[in-house]
Amino acid sequence: MPSRRLALLLPFLLPACAGRDPEIAVPGTPIGFRFLLPMRLNVAEVVVTEAAPPPAPGDFGASLAVPPARAMRQMAEERLFAVGTTGQAVFGVTQALLLRDNSGVVCALACRLDIVAAEGGRQGFIEASARANITLPSSVAPATRQRAGEAMLRQALDRLNVEFEFQVKRNLRAWLVETAPGASGMPAPAPSGVEREALPPA
């Protein structure tokens, strides 16, 4: 008899459960990349440009504590270090979208790193991109959608960081310095060789 009663109540319980906002976990730790091994480049300076593509309709990345473009620049600042005497490594954000629509939230990130000679000619470059998305009901609360945005940014950043390192090691290997001169097999402390430069959008 109890099982029959539960079967009769089930159609009423399911819509109530379905109407609840999903639980979305967001790491409590700040965004950071200093725990990873630095990538030392044989250039005189690393330039992280401030320019970024304009936001698209529905983009709410600016409402996050750390907007996507700033998080990507932070990745470059905390992972790339100059240990050479000439040339530049120029990092730029080419896509930094955090969009919401009726189907949920999607985060799309992309960046580019150029190796530029002292005379100004480009010697090499890499591009990396990553996406993360989650499906949400259209009736989800704004606070839940905001947490979803934070979670998707973290996921996309993790994927971008892995892809970025892979591309650097595969296509810019000639500019990578594994150990500092004079070191006996142990990586030297990462120098603070990162500068910022405001460039107009391409």
Structure description:
- This protein is of the alpha/beta class.
- Helix content is 29%, strand content 28%.
- It has helices at 2-18, 68-79, 142-171, and strands at 39-41, 45-49, 80-82, 88-101, 104-116, 122-135, 194-197.
- The strands form two sheets. Strands 6-5-4-2-7 form a five-stranded mixed β-sheet. The protein has a two-stranded parallel sheet with strand order 1-3.
- A hairpin with a 2-residue loop joins strand 4 (88-101) and strand 5 (104-116).
What is the gist of this entry?
29% of the residues lie in helices and 28% in strands. The protein contains 3 helices and 7 strands, in the order H-E-E-H-E-E-E-E-H-E. It is elongated and about 60 Å long.
Q: SS-based structural class?
A: alpha/beta
Strand order in the sheet with the most strands: 6-5-4-2-7
| Poorly predicted sequence stretches spanning 5 or more consecutive residues | 1-18, 180-202
Oligomeric state of this protein: single chain
The average pLDDT score comes to: 82
Report the sheet with the most strands, covering strand number, pairing sense and barrel closure: 5 strands, mixed
How many helical elements?
3
Shape: elongated
* CATH topology name: Double Stranded RNA Binding Domain
End-to-end Cα distance, whole Å, is: 71 Å
The appropriate CATH architecture is: 2-Layer Sandwich
Order of helices and strands: HEEHEEEEHE
How much strand? 25-35%
What radius of gyration results from the CA coordinates? Answer: 22 Å
How many strand segments?
Answer: 7
Provide the number of structural domains.
Answer: 1
CATH class: Alpha Beta
Estimated helix fraction: 25-40%
